Amino acid sequence: MEERMKNFVIIVAGGSGSRMGTEIPKQFLELHRKPVLMHTIQIFHDFDPESKIILVLPKDQHQFWKELCLKHSFSLSHQVVFGGKTRFHSVQNGLSQIENKGIVFIHDGVRPLVSKETLERCLETAKKSGNAIPVLPVNESLLRQEGNLNISVDRSQYFSVQTPQTFRSEQILDAFKQEFDTSFTDDASVAEKAGFSIQMVEGNRENIKITTPTDLIIAQALLQSNSL
Ligand SMILES: Nc1ccn([C@@H]2O[C@H](COP(=O)(O)OP(=O)(O)OP(=O)(O)O)[C@@H](O)[C@H]2O)c(=O)n1
Ligand SMILES: C[C@](O)(CO)[C@H](O)COP(=O)(O)O
């Protein structure tokens, strides 16, 4: 009988939230009666209750998170590790907890609206092809700045990138052995620099990254309509 592959989920929430600008870090803000991070963890647990969930949080937020879990009676199993200086270093800390082969989902803690269908597409393609990056076509026109000129570009050649960026564990562990480079904006850029070819799958429009106060209003509305 074929052995079932283990799923690992690294949820990164080690950032500073400077563009949100709230006193409470954005991952703890309440949306639809629960902190953002609890929505995110719940989605992955519901997708596969057997998966190992690793939450990356700045060291000085661990106690606060523990208190929030008690307050909300949040008991889904997860392991908490320290955040790093950049997203790359936070992911690296998460990867250090992967002890055997499987599929690794790397997801922004502040994307609490990823759909089950996106997760299924990511899982299936990563199993088959080594990785899967959820993307969407760009809905607006695009301009590129070149000196004093602003030049229209062909938007059909561009896609906006979401998470969970999903990999076979061997591939992503290998990619993250590299030295940090300032060009790394996500995990796909790390894998690409290590020589792996990147596979795109369709993401979902609701899967926004809560970055600014406006995103919070949109996420609140979407979560409310999801639960109707
Ligand atoms: N050192 C860092 C920086 C970012 N992240 C995580 O990477 C995701 C995407 O980053 P972003 O939305 O930019 O979060 P922040 O860095 O917190 O926000 P900002 O750039 O506005 O400060 C977030 O879940 C964030 O917590 C992380 O784990 N560790
Ligand atoms: C990982 C990411 O969410 C993919 O779109 C994005 O690259 C994070 O960028 P940020 O500037 O760190 O928010």
TrEMBL record:
Residues marked Transition state stabilizer (site): 19, 26
An annotated Gene Ontology molecular function: 2-C-methyl-D-erythritol 4-phosphate cytidylyltransferase activity
One GO-annotated biological process of the protein: isopentenyl diphosphate biosynthetic process, methylerythritol 4-phosphate pathway
Coiled-coil positions: none
Keywords: Isoprene biosynthesis, Nucleotidyltransferase, Transferase
Metabolic or biological pathway: Isoprenoid biosynthesis; isopentenyl diphosphate biosynthesis via DXP pathway; isopentenyl diphosphate from 1-deoxy-D-xylulose 5-phosphate: step 2/6
Broadest EC class assigned to this enzyme: transferase
Site (Positions MEP for the nucleophilic attack): 155, 209
Protein's UniProt keywords contain Transferase: yes
EC number: 2.7.7.60
SUPFAM superfamilies assigned: Nucleotide-diphospho-sugar transferases
Catalytic reaction(s) noted: 2-C-methyl-D-erythritol 4-phosphate + CTP + H(+) = 4-CDP-2-C-methyl-D-erythritol + diphosphate
Highest taxon listed in the record's lineage: Bacteria
Function recorded in the entry: Catalyzes the formation of 4-diphosphocytidyl-2-C-methyl-D-erythritol from CTP and 2-C-methyl-D-erythritol 4-phosphate (MEP).
Family the entry assigns: Belongs to the IspD/TarI cytidylyltransferase family. IspD subfamily.
NCBIfam families in UniProt: ispD (TIGR00453), PRK00155.2-3 (NF001186)
Protein name per its UniProtKB record: 2-C-methyl-D-erythritol 4-phosphate cytidylyltransferase
Taxonomic source organism: Aquipluma nitroreducens
